[in-house]
């Protein structure tokens, strides 16, 4: 049923659709966003939680649909995001908890869910500046790893994440959850290995690749003499030779103990905060 909803406190009239049926075609379309193919075809993705939706709107992400639980109706912040959604031409759905659970595949779903347009930056437009650090990930496979890396890159002040080759989708529900909102803050690029190698050669940045056979201790590298791209290998097989050859330095994080390598997200965090430490010392001068 479509009806006009006069919003207390805003005096605005918005279009809100009330949905209680799991068979509703709009709900079916939203549920289909759990498939990569549907996300790619529509260029959209789902983010859960009021805070994330507010952050996304503030950062200029285009909202297509806002879904909120009936129980959240009348809450001032929910009303504000609903008004913004309508003002930006989006659709607002007020749904039963059963519908929200089916959309998010969770028993205790968040009260608010937003469907947003994906944002990809063009690698060919990227001109790394001195003081900037980027992370490039070779065929990252694990959604939790990718989400954690995007979150950590944001927290370490990095300027973007470049996905090289066939990577897991940063806009999957699992990855978006693991980013804890940083998906909206971190510019995302994607490239084939050949495109990345071509870009790296003329970008003016130094590529510091991490490799278990790296000859250089990661703490001895100067991360501030040029913009830096930290290149990280695939979880199972590490970096292939063509990407390793494109690097200016092959860095190793010295380890103790039995494990032959660090988890990819942990290794990326170690590298990001080492680069940050160098850059902060540059600022302090
Ligand atoms: N078996 C893989 C290999 O042979 O490289 C292990 C890959 S490791 C789980 C994933 C990525 O994390 C590596 O490709 C590398 O980029 C980084 N990494 C993990 N531990 C590292 C270490 N001690 N030194 C340098 N890089 C490391």
Number of domains: 2
Distance between the termini: 63 Å
Strand fraction band? 15-25%
Biggest sheet strand line-up: 9-8-7-12-10-13-11
Summarize the helix and strand pattern as letters: EEHHEHEHEHEEHEHEHEEEHEH
Q: Biggest sheet: strands, sense, closure?
A: 7 strands, parallel
Which segments are poorly predicted (pLDDT under 50) over 5 or more consecutive residues?
1-13
Q: Briefly, what CATH class of the largest domain?
A: Alpha Beta
User: Which term fits the overall shape?
Assistant: elongated
Radius of gyration: 21 Å
Name the CATH homologous superfamily of the largest domain: SPOUT methyltransferase, trefoil knot domain
Please state the oligomeric state of the protein chains shown: single chain
Textual characterization of the structure:
The protein is of the alpha/beta class and 285 residues long. It contains ten helices and 13 strands. The chain folds into two domains: 2-117, 60s Ribosomal Protein L30, Chain: A (2-Layer Sandwich), CATH 3.30.1330.30; 123-283, 3-Layer(aba) Sandwich (Alpha/beta knot), CATH 3.40.1280.10. The protein has helices at 25-31, 36-42, 50-58, 76-87, 97-104, 143-155, 173-179, 193-202, 241-245, 264-284, and strands spanning 2-6, 13-19, 44-48, 63-69, 91-95, 112-117, 133-138, 160-164, 188-191, 206-210, 216-217, 228-232, 249-252. The strands form two sheets. Strands 9-8-7-12-10-13-11 form a seven-stranded parallel sheet. It has a six-stranded mixed sheet with strand order 1-2-5-4-6-3. The longest helix is centred in the last third of the chain and has 21 residues, at 264-284. Mean pLDDT is 93; it is low at 1-13. S-adenosylmethionine is lined by residues 210-212, 214, 232-233, 235, 238-239, 252-253, 255, 261-262, 264, 267.
């Amino acid at each position: 049923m479509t009806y006009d909803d006069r919003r207390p406190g805003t005096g605005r009239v918005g279009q809100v659709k009330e949905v209680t049926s799991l068979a509703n075609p709009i709900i079916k379309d939203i549920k289909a966003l759990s498939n990569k193919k549907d996300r790619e075809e529509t260029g959209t993705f789902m983010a859960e939680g009021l805070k994330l939706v507010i952050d996304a709107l503030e950062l200029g992400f285009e909202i297509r649909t806002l879904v909120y639980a009936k129980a959240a109706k009348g809450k001032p912040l929910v009303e504000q995001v609903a008004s913004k959604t309508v003002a930006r031409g989006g659709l607002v759905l007020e749904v039963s908890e059963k519908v929200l659970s089916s959309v998010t595949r969770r028993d205790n779903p968040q009260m608010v869910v937003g469907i947003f347009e994906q944002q990809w930056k063009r690698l060919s437009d990227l001109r790394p500046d001195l003081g900037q650090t980027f992370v490039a990930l070779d065929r990252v496979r694990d959604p939790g790893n990718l989400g954690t890396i995007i979150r950590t890159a944001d927290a370490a002040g990095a300027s973007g994440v470049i996905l090289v080759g066939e990577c897991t989708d940063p806009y999957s529900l699992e990855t978006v959850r693991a980013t804890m909102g940083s998906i909206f803050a971190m510019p995302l690029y994607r490239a084939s290995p050949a495109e990345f190698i071509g870009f790296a050669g003329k970008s003016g940045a130094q590529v510091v690749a991490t490799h278990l056979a790296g000859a250089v201790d990661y703490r001895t590298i100067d991360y501030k003499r040029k913009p830096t791209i930290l290149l990280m290998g695939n979880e199972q097989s590490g970096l292939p030779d063509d990407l390793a050859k494109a690097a200016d330095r092959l860095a190793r994080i010295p380890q103790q103990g039995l494990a032959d390598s660090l988890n990819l997200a942990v290794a990326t965090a170690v590298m990001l905060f080492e680069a940050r430490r160098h850059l902060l010392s540059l600022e302090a001068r």
